[in-house]
Specification:
Layout lengths: L1 H21 L12 E7 L4 H10 L11 E6 L10 H10 L20 H7 L3 E9 L3 H7 L8 H10 L4 E5 L2 H4 L8 H7 L2 E5 L15 E5 L15 H15 L4 E7 L2 H6 L3 H25 L2 E6 L3 E2 L3 E6 L2 E5 L5 E2 L3 E6 L8 E4 L1 H11 L9
Parallel strand pairs: 1-7, 1-8, 2-14, 3-4, 3-7, 4-6, 5-6
Antiparallel strand pairs: 2-13, 8-13, 9-12, 10-11
Zinc ion (ZN) binds next to helix 10.
Length: 371
Amino acid sequence: MKFSILTIVLIILWGWTGNLGQSATPIPEADRPKNIVLLIGDGMGLAQISAALYDNNLHLSLEQFPVIGFQKTHSANNLITDSAAAGTALASGKKTKNNVIGLDNDGVPCKTILEEASERGLATGMVVTSSIQHATPACFVAHQKARNMYENIAEDILKSGIDFFIGGGKQYFDRREKDDFNLVEELKKKDFAVYDYFQNELTDVKPSPDKRFAFLTADNQPLPAMQGRDYLPFASKLALDYLKARNPNGFFLMIEGSQIDWSCHANQPVPLLAEMKDFDKTIEQVLNFARKDGETLVIVTADHETGGMALNEGSPRKLDYEFTTNGHTAAMVPVFAYGPQSGLFRGIYENTAIYDKMREAFGFSELGIGN
Ligand code: MG
Ligand code: ZN
């Protein structure tokens, strides 16, 4: 008798938890964010964040985020991911091999959160401090078997549905080696107003929400922050205001502090601190917007840690930094979330879960499979 009651209880429990797994309660529309801003500090692990914090009088904008999580960064074929596999995981929710842009582990193109947002009628944008065709941004708008196929990635950008982008890489649009196409002209045919750093100051340009907008900040890679590059906070604010005006349904925006990674590959703490300061100012801009707007989910994370950076003895004002590698490491990286549905980002999970959580927050997951 005892046994059968226990059995019944177990069966009921099993059925109940099984049901939970099958259909999580959808988030009511009123509780969903209208907008999602995903900020990626490429190579930004806890040591990089700590270094920036000590360098900035023991404070960072990141301290204002109420929800913290950790993500596991390994790729499909390597304990240590590169930015391509990690970017694909964040953008499309698929673990893939290092070097691969927006294809799953079988080589099948996987729809990105940016592409899906665009298809579902939201405005979309990216602002980065690398070329716009570099691995991290490429993963949101392109599908190519190798990250260095910059000219192919430039073509994919035209098909992605993106409304707004700021970054380097002009030469892959208008001085191509594989063909004679001028993709700046193609962008214009697709209703883009296209500007570049040769002819314009970003601060002088007023994007019209009636047109798409592109500003190319370099022929290839923009300068490091230490050499005077300072557009990321301004460009991010420009993107937020544009996207909000562009589309009443909401928007998805990806912002990347691209060169945090490069300073750590070079094992150089001073350039790193300049990149981190620039990225923190950008986070502050986004938080200011989100606080006023009240309908924006802000997520800050990294794709992986770079340099195996350690903070050794010293004082908060004069730290002794050490690096254990010129490459990336397998350490988990933190996730910070603010705004509607930020609670989804609590805990420890795979990098691919960030894509799932963003779709859930947007209400996409109940509308059908993304890819
Ligand atoms: Mg990157
Ligand atoms: Zn790297």
